[in-house]
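Hey, resending since the last one bounced:
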Amino acid sequence: MPFAVKVILVLLSVLILEFYFVRKVINSINILFTNVSQKNIKIGKWIILLLINIYPVISIFAWIYTYYTNSGFFAPPENFFFDYFVLYPFWFGTMLIVQATLFFIILELLNLIGMFFLKKEKRIKYKSFLYFFIFAVTLIYVPVRILYDYNSVEIREVLFKKENLPESLNGLKIGFISDIQADRFTDESRLIHYIKKLNSTNPDIVLMAGDMITSTPNFIKISAEQLGKIKSKYGVYTCVGDHDNWAYRRNIIKSRNEVTDALARVNIPMIDNDKLFLGIDSTNIEVTFITNTYSERIRREVLDSLTKNKNIADLRILLTHQPREFIINKAAENNYDLYLCGHTHGGQITFLFPFYNLSPTLAETTYMRGDFWFDDMLMIVTRGLGMSLAPVRFNSTPEITIITLSK
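The structure tokens again:
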């Protein structure tokens, strides 16, 4: 399906949700608050709709302009007014509408059941109260959660037990991070807070699953400088991420080289389809770095060669950016102990729903966050720090994963 068609379908879906949401909220206000002026309700409705929809309208016109004039990629203005009166209202409004509507749908189902037990007048009043209650709670919860996820970092501890683990590796701590994605939203203060939190865990090794920037070369230096402040006994190493190729949108090689060079200056190797053997006392840890991104897919023969088990390591780790099924299967077949990746941001925008939380990330992979076992191999998908596409996180708090090895 062409990209333009996908965008149109998404926008139509959002408009339908908006119409449904606004109709339900206004109907409930009219029934519960009979003294409220209809004129004030209409004025409030149109102000809210304007704030929510001005960003997609500007984006559509800008996209049409850049497409027909061949003037390149549309970059939104970077200033306080645009952020707080155009960009953030759109994302806040969209999340409010989707989150509330998910619970409205449950209410619709309960209303069908209530038809058999309650009179119509009572049912309408109860339903109107519940619609308004859901709206009010969501109106408070969404901004509070966005702010919490922006300002917080969780340390998630994972205990990995391995039979016959050498004594010198028993208790070794691996700090695992990903998706730093430095940009104007994930600025220097967020990076400083994140690195301080990581250093407070005293990791022995730090592995990163790529994406040190989001886009543009403007934040390469800041990201590298802060990552250079990571303290670990046996070093910091990273694989290549998607966004590491996109500092210059049309020049992947230049982007990768600048990111790699900036990291090298602070003694962090960005390793592209290669292996690293870390000698700790008389033991060996093998880390295989796999480059498989949107810009560059790994060839099967290269993957076969890199993952071949030669039985010379006491612990085998595969580090890559994305949780891809064919790489997971290959790692499990070749007796890797750990498969470490990021990319998903833990479902950067996740909507609460009974029994199963929903996120657009699920359209790409079911391995959204957390731990997954494949026989004796543990795959860890870390939530990372940064953001892409949307300048917010929702129900996906940034994460540092600390893996402690144990017999």
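Residues 155-406 form a domain with the Purple Acid Phosphatase; chain A, domain 2 fold (CATH 3.60.21.10).

Sorry for the duplicate.
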